[in-house]
Amino acid sequence: MIDVMTASSPLLVAAVAIDIDGTLFVQMGAFLLVFVILNFVLIKPYLKTVEAREESVQGSSEEAGEMDAQAAVLTASYDEKLSKARREAQDVRESLRNQGLAEQDDILEEVREELGGKLAEERKVIEDRVVAARAEIDERARALAEAMVQKVLPQG
Fold first, then answer.
1. Which one is predicted more confidently, 83 or 7?
2. C-alpha to C-alpha distance for 105 and 98, rounded to whole angstroms
3. How many CB atoms lie within 10 A of CB 43?
4. For residues 40 and 20, what is the distance between their CA atoms, to the nearest angstrom?
């Protein structure tokens, strides 16, 4: 353990060596001069830089906030336009679908009329053939009947 209270203690000897005299004012003047120089050379520029950085960050934050608000407005506008375009596209699709269905009905009607005409013609042809075939059958039946009569009944 170090004994500080004895006359031979190095701490006591050092404390006695420091005394207050005129150099204290010189040292205080040198300290103040260094402080003033450091204040102008180092501390104030550093504080200005920090303040400018904070203002820049603040300005950037405000600008980012404004840009976010603009982005939200643009997004809402985009969504509205997209929705409107989808509705218009759906209307156009529905209109084209209805137009296609109407054309389909027209084509079907034309085909039905054409097929109805052809069917009537074919029925007429078949009916004519049936009439002709019946006439031929009747004629053959008469000829056969005459032949049978001639064979059954003696010739006089």
1. 83
2. 10
3. 13
4. 30
On average, the pLDDT of the chain sits at 90
The predicted model scores a pTM of 0.46
Buried/exposed code over 103-136 (b: 16+ C-beta within 10 A; e: otherwise) = eeeeeeeeeeeeeeeeeeeeeeeeeeeeeeeeee
Q: Tokens 């009905």 map to which residue? A: 105
Confidence of residue 22 (pLDDT cuts 50, 70, 90): confident
